[in-house]
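Need a sequence for this fold. Nothing fancy.
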């Protein structure tokens, strides 16, 4: 990729949560990752040192806020502070996965809105822009008073499924809140959708409740889509319901493979044939099931970074 050199030099840094993704982005952009080191004081406090000048630079920092979540958030905030004090001109936070995003409104009395709290912290630290992928709720953009570019992974996931030439596809929303996302994938695959209509208290052990399907899945190739697979309960619960309703094949996909707790075990034992995820979150070796396929968002992020740097439209990436 050719980057025209404008006034402020572009610098790309990686923190510790997903260096392989940052390296892929850097080779896409044709620039080296900036030199920085992250270490710990003996009491666990984080120390960051930026080992090259960033004065007057347009800086992009790649950090998904993933397990250990609180550590990776703190690392990011300290890096932003360091960049601000080192006179970086722009501090663009590239946060492919935005943690704490699921508490995005006060659903019950006395609940926090952590998505807003994280937005406040990032801005207060000194970030001038946020770039993320498939935010859990689009309104999180409005929690910021700086520009927020939200990229979409559905075109990448859609292209992957198109190449499989599957027949009789139905895209599945694992609950009512996932219908918009299911519709987007279904549009790209020219397929109908069906919805898992989950009601009643959740069975903690199996993640089930009374479920029905709105739509036709008997004898169909089904693709469940969610934004996050965390404990894996929602997606495997949906798969069980699809199986009971006679689906021929079951695929699952998501943008952010959080894969905590017993998720790997649940996915392995489920009727799901393949789980397609992206690399917004690094998956350690011990969690790499053979049925998990990881698609890269590096080129998407690279293009977004270069467009932001060149003052070009980012939304046209999706039109
Ligand atoms: C919830 O609002 C999200 O969109 C996902 O459905 C949820 O995070 C999945 O969680 P789990 O894998 O733990 O069921």
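Here you go.
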């Amino acid at each position: 990729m050719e980057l025209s050199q404008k006034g402020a030099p572009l610098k790309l840094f990686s923190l510790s949560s997903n260096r392989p993704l940052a390296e892929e982005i850097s080779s896409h952009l044709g620039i080296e990752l900036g030199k920085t080191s992250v270490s710990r004081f003996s009491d666990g406090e984080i120390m960051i040192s930026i080992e090259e000048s960033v004065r007057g630079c347009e800086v992009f920092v790649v950090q998904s806020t993933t397990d250990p979540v609180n550590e990776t958030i703190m690392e990011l905030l300290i890096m932003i502070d360091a960049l601000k004090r080192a006179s970086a001109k722009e501090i663009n936070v590239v946060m492919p996965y935005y943690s704490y995003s699921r508490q995005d409104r006060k659903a019950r009395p006395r609940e926090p809105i952590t998505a807003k709290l994280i937005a406040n912290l990032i801005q207060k630290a000194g970030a001038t822009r946020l770039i993320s992928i498939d935010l859990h709720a689009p309104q999180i953009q409005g929690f910021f008073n700086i520009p927020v570019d939200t990229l979409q992974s559905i075109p990448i996931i859609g292209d992957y499924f198109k190449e499989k030439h599957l027949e009789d596809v139905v895209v599945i929303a694992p609950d009512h809140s996932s219908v918009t996302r299911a519709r987007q994938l279904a549009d790209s695959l020219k397929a109908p959708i069906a919805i898992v209509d989950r009601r009643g208290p959740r069975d903690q052990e199996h993640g089930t409740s009374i479920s029905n399907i709105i739509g036709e899945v008997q004898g169909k190739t089904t693709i469940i889509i969610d934004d996050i697979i965390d404990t894996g309960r929602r997606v495997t619960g949906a798969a069980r319901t699809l199986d009971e309703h006679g689906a021929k094949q079951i695929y699952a996909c998501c943008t952010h493979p959080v894969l905590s707790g017993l998720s790997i075990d649940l996915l392995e034992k489920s009727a799901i044939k393949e789980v397609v995820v992206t690399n917004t979150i690094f998956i350690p070796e011990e969690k790499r099931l053979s049925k998990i396929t990881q698609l890269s968002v590096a080129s998407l992020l690279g293009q977004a970074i270069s467009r932001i740097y060149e003052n070009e439209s980012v939304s046209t990436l999706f039109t």
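For context: The mean pLDDT is 95.
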